[in-house]
Amino acid sequence: MKFLLVFDFDHTIIDENSDTWIVKCAPERKLPNGLRNSYQPGHWTEYMGRVFVYLGDNGVKEDEMKRTMTTIPFTAGMVDLLGFIGENKDLFDCIIVSDSNTVFIDWILKAADFHKVFDEVFTNPAAFSSTGYLTVQHFHAHHCAKCPKNLCKRKVLKEFLDKQLERGVSYTQIVYIGDGGNDLCPVMFLKKNDIAMPRQGYTLEKKISQLAQSLSPVQCSVLVWSSAIDIISYLKLLIKE
After folding, report:
1. Which of 8, 9, 84, 194 could disulfide-pair with 220, CB 3.0 to 4.6 Å?
2. What pLDDT, in 10s, does the model give residues 145-195?
3. Which stretches in the chain have pLDDT values below 50?
4. DSSP helix, strand, coil percent of the chain (3-state; round to 5)
């Protein structure tokens, strides 16, 4: 009996968007209008690439970025939740699927000593170039019309589950914890026995309830959370069963 916990990162594990938080490193803690207005829907990764070039051009170094990123607060109750999962790793496999990047997630999890809680992190690969600029790439290519072009979380989840099956691992239940619009695609892939846990008041919750109103509800159960303590309560029930 093993459960798979799938986490989004921004506004789910941390209470902010890691990509917009990095702007605190910019001169006067803001971006020039031309750069800010250069974002095109579905092309966030390219936009962040330009932001990182701007920071590099302004002499922002890796250690300053790291200091800034590790001040991001965790979502209410999340420290307790990750501690609880860490104590019960024999029952829970735990992955992150995020549109952030490997450098930011790595810094934040390691600073709080939570990196061991997660078995795998699926996010956009990032690295510092020889000139000290942070660069970011697309996670993968896909053909899903619903998702941003760099990441379809459904594809990531499906491929992970297929790989686990090849290793002889199958899950009693998948618990998907997220908040954003790009979490809807993987939630729609979940089966009747699985559970989606959208964060209260965020886009994912709104989209799931719109589907229910248009009489095409998601297959899985839905349990809304506002503090990660709500998630712990549910996981404790799961373990008792």
Report:
1. 194
2. 889 889 999 999 999 999 999 999 999 999 999 999 999 999 999 999 999
3. none
4. 45, 20, 40
Helix (H) or strand (E) holding 45: helix 44-57
Give the pLDDT of residue 216.
80
Domain boundaries, the chain: 2-15+74-127+146-239
Match domain 2-15+74-127+146-239 to its CATH number in 3.40.50.1000, 3.30.470.30, 3.90.550.10, 3.10.20.30. 3.40.50.1000
- Provide the token pair at 216: 């095409």
* Dist. CA 76–CA 190, nearest whole Å: 26
Query: What single-letter amino acid sits at 59?
Result: G
Within 13 A of 157's CA, how many CA atoms are on the CB side? 27
108: left (phi over 0), alpha (psi -120 to 50) or beta: alpha
| Number of other CB atoms surrounding residue 82 within 10 Å | 23
Report d(CA 143, CA 17) in Å as an integer. Answer: 26
- The structure tokens listed for 237 are 């029930």
- Does residue 203 sit in helix, strand or coil? helix
Nearest partner of 172 among 154, 195, 155, 188, judged by Cα: 195
Whole-angstrom Cα distance, residue 169 to residue 197? 23
The whole-angstrom separation of Cα 32 and Cα 9 is 27
Would you name the residues annotated as active-site residues? 8, 10
- Binding residue positions: 8, 10, 19, 99, 179
Binding residues for substrate, by number, are: 19, 99
Helix, strand or coil, per DSSP, at residue 149: coil
